Amino acid sequence: MTEKPGFRPAMNWLHTWAGLTLGTLLFTIWWMGTLSVFDQEIDRWMKPETRLAPASQTLDADAVISRVMEKYPGDELESFLIYLPRERKPFFEVYGELKDSGRVNERLHAVTGEPLGESRSRAASGFFYPMHYRLHMGGIGYFIVAFATLYMMVLLVTGVVIHRKIFVDFFTFRPKKKIRRSSLDLHNVTGVMFLPFHFLICLSGFAIFPGFYASPPFAIAKAVSESNETVKLFYAASDYAYYRREPAGEPAKMADIAPFVARAEAIWTERYDQPAKADRIDLHHVGDKNAYVEVRRFFPSRRMEAHRDSINFDGVNGEILMDFEASPVGQARNWLEGFHQIQFDHWPLRWFYFIAGLAGCILIATGFLFWTASRMKKGAVSQPVKIRFVEAMSVGSVTGMIVATGAFLVANRLLPAEAAWAGLARPELEVRIFFLVWVLSFVHPVIRSNKAWAEQSWAIAALGVLAVILNWVTTGDHLFASASRGLWSVAGMDLVLLASAGAAALAAMRLQQRPDSSATMRRKPDASKPVDATKPSPVE
Amino acid sequence: MIGRTISAASMIFRVIAIAIGGYALTAGVVALSGIGLNAVGVPLNDAMLATVLSGFIFYIAVVMWGFRDRRTLIRPIAVLAAAALTMTAASYLSPWVLAS
């Protein structure tokens, strides 16, 4: 490795290497995050039993609670919580714990209160969304994602540093030029135009579990030396709004819950001077003298911030036990968390998130594409293995990830309801198909070299159209049927799939025009001074 | 110094020292500044929330500073030393804050 002095070359080096080594991971996180913008809509599409028309008048929380308590009578139920229906999720969700440590997990119709039937897919909220923040790897996944996110921010800042013509490039995109040139243009345009959003979306991700991400060095210090308690400082950063008390062991009759919800909403409405609605109710120690009811409001529907508003009532006599209100610093954190979690009801803004997310995906993909294209251009005959490796990695992590997503959707519509294989239930089979296709998409470019870009783009186009057709065949909800029933989640999903198929087909045709490396060299001998092919060229 | 070759071993040391050492340094600085804010009267959870959230920006600055000059090993060693220093200082001071 050779070295040029100066700030800009150093940052260029950092940008190139951080991008190359973390690009796959970053694309995965960005892509899954972009899909999670519409997680509920994808859920409606993948779980047809939840395709319910939006209800204007929903069942009372009290009625749902009494239903649950009828079903699990007497001493069976320890605690449970209810998510109230929202615009994007038109049903009640009930999660509970039984005294014998069994679990309750039910979805109830917003109007009739009838159970919706078993879910046969993990869909977006159970697969895409967790993959976005923990990669389905458990605890270590959170840290891998956090680490990659830090370096995404490093990439954004170094990208600005190494950039020479930031204002000009804001308006420069030359799609008709060679791939190397137009991919760099696209890298710069998406990078510059969405820079503030991209930076803030990275930073706000940390606002969700701030202390958790920052504490590991001191957690290790504690593992080495028992007496080092500094890690507890970091717990303080995540300390909010929890009221807890133990059961008394004496039975008591629970008060009606509906008045608690109304009281909490009245308190918030007055405090914030805007109509407030509760979105979650937690019941603890049901039927015990020490029972308490927590009424919460996480996501005010027309506001950016995620609140931690929580009012705890005594479950027997209705006394207020704790009323949590965030401090000013806590409110700043709430705003950042809400900015990231996008649970507000505002469709244009939600679409902006989706577009900005896609722009981030394009930013990462074109970074890869530029790296390989510029080395091809320089006639990198000295290290073809290295370039082939990066190319396989970039094809697999960019188009491969999208192909795998398409396969996941198609598998969701193709697998029979009771499908099970090798001990795996239907939801897990879908997930295995996703990973199998993804792995194969890394093998494909090893065999087909740079033709793999175009071929996988064609696969995306085919899968997109196929998914829409299969949705029609298996559920009867073709575009007009779902639109006329007001199911814009399903209709929108179909439209986005068709649009993606079209975009993928266009990209495939554009990529097939790309001359291979030898043709590029013949047509245009490189006029610039000879450069070591393994070294990143300075960004023009 | 143009064109000086850097050995792979020193590069690996540099990357680990700055990426991981920088993380430890950030945690140390976050803990110390949280302790400092608490000492001037900010409640502990607010103090830590504010410093933790700023810490993520601080880390970016550490990484960029660390890789700014790759001709010597002064910067990665400085990051490691500063990490050790701040974490030790925070460890000595934290019982005092946690007790109050």
List the helices and strands and how they pair.
The complex is a heterodimer of chains A (540) and B (100).
Chain A: H1 7-36, H2 39-46, H3 61-71, E1 77-83, E2 91-98, E3 103-109, H4 123-134, H5 139-162, H6 166-169, H7 179-193, H8 195-205, H9 210-214, H10 216-224, H11 231-237, H12 258-272, E4 280-284, E5 292-297, E6 309-314, E7 320-324, H13 328-341, H14 347-377, H15 384-414, E8 420-421, E9 424-425, H16 426-448, H17 452-475, H18 479-484, H19 488-512, H20 517-523
Antiparallel strand pairs in A: 1-2, 1-4, 2-3, 4-5, 5-6, 6-7, 8-9
Helix pairs in contact in A: 1-4, 1-5, 1-14, 1-15, 2-4, 2-19, 5-8, 7-14, 8-13, 14-15, 15-16, 15-17, 17-19
Chain B: H1 8-39, H2 44-66, H3 74-99
Helix pairs in contact in B: 1-2, 1-3, 2-3
Task: Give a verbal description of the structure.
- The complex is a heterodimer of chains A (540) and B (100).
- Chain A is built from 20 helices and 9 strands.
- Chain A is of the alpha+beta class and 540 residues long.
- Chain A folds into 3 domains: 8-47 and 120-225 and 345-377, no CATH class; 53-118 and 241-325, no CATH class; 383-521, no CATH class.
- In chain A, the strands form 2 sheets. Chain A has a 7-stranded antiparallel β-sheet. A two-stranded antiparallel ribbon of chain A has the order 8-9.
- By secondary structure, chain B is mainly α.
- Chain B contains 3 helices and no strands.
- Classes of the chains: A alpha+beta (540), B mainly alpha (100).
- The interface between A and B is large, with 46 and 47 residues.
